Amino acid sequence: MLSALLAAFFLPLYLGSVPLPVSAVLSGVVNAALVWTGLQWTPSQAAAGTPLWTWLATVALFTLGGPGEDIVFGGAGIMEYGAVLLVALGAGPAALVLTRQTGAHSGRGTG
Asked: What's the whole-model pTM score?
């Protein structure tokens, strides 16, 4: 959840006039590491994917407006797609780790 919070609030980081979504990339690395670690500790893929689902739920909550109609995601140009970019770069690597591990375990014990 902390990863989603930091990624969402540092997403509009700019290098000069160019948007630099480094928080989304770092969040993807952290999420992939958390899912990989979960797969090492438990045989249950549902349990190992808990960090990913928690992260996605937190980002989904940030898409809702606040009490004063405050928004977390928004902006001009590419930042209009900030939420989509964050989900793709932040959840994609973790989902890939989870699905690749699923395929690796499916062939076990057939030799």
From this structure: 0.82
